[in-house]
């Protein structure tokens, strides 16, 4: 029996030595492959897309026009618009019912919007992104005095340029 004991010891010692030799070799091969190849590099291309936004925060006006004895009515409309559109936006003002005599619109020049007369009403345009607060003074005149208790006659539409 004593002759059989040394043989397993030699075999286990040999296996243990081979295991130790193989362990660093596998780790070494991975590091050698990484070093032999090109260094890692990456290019990132970020694109941030901001969706176009045009929002009417406020469009306030009286429900009925204030009328005067001379057949004239007036009202103040407050319009607050926020937009990130590059080229801006326009607001169209038109009468939604049958025309009521003459209609005049005025805005303060410091509002940043340009007012122009168009075929069926008025057009206010803001040429760049931002927040616009516009006070619009409306004046209606009728020769026959038919402006008594008239509901708000102006339709407001907004569109991108």
Explain what the structure shows.
It is a single chain. The chain has two domains: 1-41; 54-160, Immunoglobulin-like. Strands 1, 2, 3, 5 and 8 form a five-stranded antiparallel sheet that branches. Strands 6-7-4-9 form a four-stranded antiparallel sheet, with no helix packed on it. The chain is rod-shaped. 19% of the residues lie in helices and 40% in strands. The chain has one helix and nine strands, in the order αβββββββββ. The protein is α+β, with helices and mostly antiparallel strands.
Question: Roughly how many Å is the radius of gyration?
Answer: 41 Å
The low-confidence runs, each spanning 5 or more residues with pLDDT under 50, are none
CATH-scheme architecture of the largest domain: Sandwich
Secondary-structure-derived class: alpha+beta
Termini separation (Å)? 102 Å
Q: What series of H and E elements makes up the topology?
A: HEEEEEEEEE
List the total number of helices: 1
Shape: rod-shaped
What key phrases describe this protein's structure?
single chain, 5-stranded antiparallel beta sheet, 4-stranded antiparallel beta sheet, 9 strands, 2 domains, 161 residues, 1 helix, alpha+beta, Immunoglobulin-like
Write the layout of secondary structure elements.
Blueprint: H1 6-36, E1 54-60, E2 66-67, E3 72-83, E4 89-95, E5 102-107, E6 114-118, E7 121-126, E8 130-141, E9 154-160
Concise overview:
The protein is of the alpha+beta class and 161 residues long. It folds into two domains: 1-41; 54-160, Immunoglobulin-like (Sandwich).
């Amino acid at each position: 029996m004593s002759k059989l004991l040394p043989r397993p010891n030699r075999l286990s010692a040999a296996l243990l030595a081979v295991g130790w030799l193989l362990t660093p070799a596998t780790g070494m091969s991975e590091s050698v492959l990484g070093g032999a190849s090109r260094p890692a590099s990456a290019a990132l291309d970020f694109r941030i897309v901001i969706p176009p936004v045009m929002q009417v925060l406020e469009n306030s006006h009286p429900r009925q026009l204030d009328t005067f004895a001379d057949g004239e009515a007036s009202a103040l409309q407050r319009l607050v618009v926020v937009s990130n559109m590059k080229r801006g936006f326009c607001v169209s003002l038109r009468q939604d019912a049958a025309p009521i005599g003459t209609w005049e619109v005025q805005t303060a020049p410091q509002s940043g919007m340009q007012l122009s007369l168009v075929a069926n009403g008025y057009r206010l345009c803001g040429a760049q992104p931002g927040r616009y607060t516009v006070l619009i003074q409306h004046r209606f005149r009728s020769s026959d005095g038919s402006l008594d208790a008239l509901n708000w006659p102006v339709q407001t539409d907004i569109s991108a340029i």
